[in-house]
Design brief:
5% strand
Length: 219
């Protein structure tokens, strides 16, 4: 059959991003366990794509520290490495400190309402033991100031390192996330009051309540 001309091209960047997100989420939520070997052919068949976007996604995941690639041998899901998680956590904390410091007093009523509602959902998820819902609500709370800030460099850093910390953070929410509810409440009210330094201090405390990584490794 003749090939139609002038039709819209497939957006390969969207395909690459979707494959990356699917694999990233499968590692973060524990579908793929630390140490598990990832074969690009099997992953491509699972996702219904060619091997090329899978290989590109694995390279991105390697840069984030979620997989370890041994050239010519295999690619495996990384273990939860204490120094790597600690370093990533400190970088993420700094990015969120910057975001809330610069957006305090600038968020609109709708933004603040969304943060409060997300915190209510977070509290309910922690109470019910729904770790996935807790992580989703937590991410929404913290992403709102980042989005309002509109600093692409901050967003890029968070996109790279956030998944590594989120994987460790599942362990915290599976044991006790109740302290985070109060910290979120304080953060939101300080942002609403325009207290940038106070909000930045609470943001620092929130990200440094992750349990010691050596304890996470033993879990």
């Amino acid at each position: 059959m003749p090939i139609p001309s002038g039709g819209p091209a497939v957006d390969r960047s969207l395909l690459r991003d979707d494959v990356y997100r699917r694999l990233r989420d499968a590692i973060v939520d524990g579908t793929f366990q630390p140490g598990e070997q990832l074969k690009d052919g099997e992953l491509a068949a699972w996702l219904g794509v060619s091997r090329t976007p899978v290989r590109e996604a694995l390279l991105r995941l390697g840069a984030s520290g979620l997989v370890v690639a041994l050239p010519g041998r295999s690619t495996r899901v990384s273990t939860i490495d204490s120094p790597a998680v600690r370093d990533a956590r400190d970088v993420i904390a700094a990015m969120h400190e910057l975001a809330v410091r610069q957006t305090a007093g600038r968020l609109g009523a709708d933004d603040l309402a969304r943060m409060r509602e997300a915190n209510r959902r977070f509290a309910a998820a922690v109470d019910s033991g729904d770790i996935d819902a807790a992580l989703d609500a937590d991410e929404e709370i913290h992403r709102i100031p980042v989005t309002v800030l509109g600093n692409r460099a901050v967003e890029t850093v968070l996109d790279q390192f956030d998944p590594l910390v989120r994987r460790a953070e599942r362990l915290r929410f599976s044991t006790d996330g109740h302290a985070s509810v109060e910290l979120h409440t304080r953060l939101i009210e300080l942002i609403a009051a325009g207290d940038g330094p106070g909000a930045a201090s609470v943001a620092f405390d929130i990200w440094h309540t992750l349990p010691p990584e050596d304890r996470a490794e033993r879990s």
